[in-house]
Design the sequence.
């Protein structure tokens, strides 16, 4: 059986290589993935990042609270959106909360479908004694997601190795500065010091410090929010996505 598995993997790898190098064009969602394609397959790739509906994902005047599934979420809050899987690194967002709460009176809102990993995240919050400030919303509608983006004070994206990462782009479109790791896809979408911050990979204190900076400086937060909206409109609209596709196809 092991020999059959190895043989299957060999053929799958060979077929994958042939299909990629034989393509007329290869599209990737980020320059980081493009670099992997060049390294593995030895061919160039066209970067075609996903688009955001900039007519839906827009800034709005902040409310004092947001209702999700009958749960009232009071401002101010930090928002993080992702699937509840170990590789998405949501535990990092929870681990920074003790540091943030020493400086700021704020909650952390985590969206995403509950999985068998969710109880581990909840237990981590309990162990760190921050469970009263960590809110799990479960799945939310697009309308509710946009409302959360619009009313958050800061958006955090703690996935450590993301090929692109749509969350920071959606948040920025809604006028929220984003804090991400300085690695992989988000290094291309978040302009450090202009639309948000990029933290040193896996350094929780550095990540937390950058979040605190945005929470405590309203003028800085507002300036980055304005930059973020312009940045997304210029680079990550659906029109931009389609223009790149058309340039490759036509």
Sequence:
């Amino acid at each position: 059986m092991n020999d059959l598995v190895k043989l299957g993997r060999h053929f799958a790898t060979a077929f994958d290589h042939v299909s990629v190098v034989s393509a007329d064009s290869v599209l990737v969602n980020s320059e980081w993935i493009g670099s992997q394609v060049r390294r593995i397959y030895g061919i160039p790739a066209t970067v075609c990042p996903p688009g955001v509906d900039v007519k839906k994902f827009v800034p709005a005047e902040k409310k004092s609270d947001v209702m999700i599934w009958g749960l009232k979420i009071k401002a101010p809050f930090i928002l993080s959106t992702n699937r509840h899987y170990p590789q998405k690194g949501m535990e990092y967002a929870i681990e920074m909360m003790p540091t943030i709460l020493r400086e700021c009176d704020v909650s952390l809102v985590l969206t995403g479908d509950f999985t068998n990993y969710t109880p581990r995240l909840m237990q981590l919050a309990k162990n760190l004694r921050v469970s009263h400030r960590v809110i799990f919303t479960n799945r939310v509608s697009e309308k509710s997601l946009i409302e959360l983006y619009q009313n958050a004070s800061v958006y955090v994206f703690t996935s450590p190795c993301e090929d692109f990462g749509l969350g920071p782009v959606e948040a920025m479109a809604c006028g929220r500065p984003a804090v991400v790791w300085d690695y992989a896809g988000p290094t291309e979408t978040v302009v450090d010091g202009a639309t948000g911050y990029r933290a040193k990979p896996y350094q929780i204190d550095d990540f937390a410090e950058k979040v605190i900076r945005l929470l405590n400086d309203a003028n800085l937060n507002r300036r980055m929010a304005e930059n973020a909206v312009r940045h997304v409109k210029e680079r990550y609209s659906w029109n931009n996505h389609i223009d790149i596709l058309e340039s490759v196809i036509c």
Observations:
- The domain at 65-235 is CATH 3.40.50.2000 (Rossmann fold).
- Residues 2-21 form the longest helix (20 residues).
- Residues 66 and 103 are 23 Å apart (CA to CA).
